[in-house]
Amino acid sequence: MTKRCTWCGDDPLYVTYHDEEWGVPVWDDQTLFEFLILEGAQAGLSWITILRKREGYRTFFDNFDARKIARYRDSKLDKILLNPAIIRNKLKVYGARKNARAFLETQAEFGTFANYMWNFVDGTPIQNHWKSMKQVPATTALSDVISKDMKKRGFTFVGSTIIYAHMQATGMVNDHTVDCFRHKECDALGKKGR
Fold first, then answer.
1. d(Cα 120, Cα 170) in Å, to the nearest integer?
2. Which secondary structure element, helix H or strand E, spans residue 95, and what is its range?
3. How many angstroms separate the CA atoms of 69 and 163, rounded?
């Protein structure tokens, strides 16, 4: 039987996400932005709730096109808020536009948003070797630093816990437990680099 991190349980959507995305190094700006918006939407909720609404986000947020989202008018955001296919929280929905604008400014400064994020780990994923999920932290000193910097740049919903979850999701840190079949695979992907 395939051994996985205990958090993914047996929900097919969660298992697929665990097996194919979580911990895989992401260098694509649009995907990094997607995870930033989704992680922010998750605040106070479970990740499976967000995964179930992911397609709704892709539909109503122009497939996470930061340039389009940055230009959304209040009337468009208010219309999006009426749709049950996403998390209907005004601060989070309006935060997507704020984050799109901060994202574009950061992208312009660093060439890519990936350059900005990956610079915090010198372009190489942190490889942890946890024996159980109980050992995995919710935040680290590094997620504190990134969170603080992103807040200064005008991002919202980027507290240290959200940023650490973003780092895990986008492979900046490999937090698969050592007994999980994906630990070695994500370790190898991290060594390949870009």
1. 13
2. helix 90-110
3. 21
CA distances from 78 to 12, 63, 66, 156 (A): 33, 18, 18, 18
Q: Give me the catalytic one of 39, 57, 118, 130.
A: 39
Strand partners, 173: 126
**Residue 185 among the catalytic residues:** no
Q: Among 47, 94, 105, 185, which one carries the catalytic annotation? A: 47
**The model's pTM:** 0.96
* pLDDT at residue 193 tops 90: no
**Do 191 and 171 contact (CB within 8 A), yes or no?**
no
| Widest pairwise Cα distance in the chain | 51
34 assigned to active site: no
Beta strands, E only, the chain: 126-127, 173-174
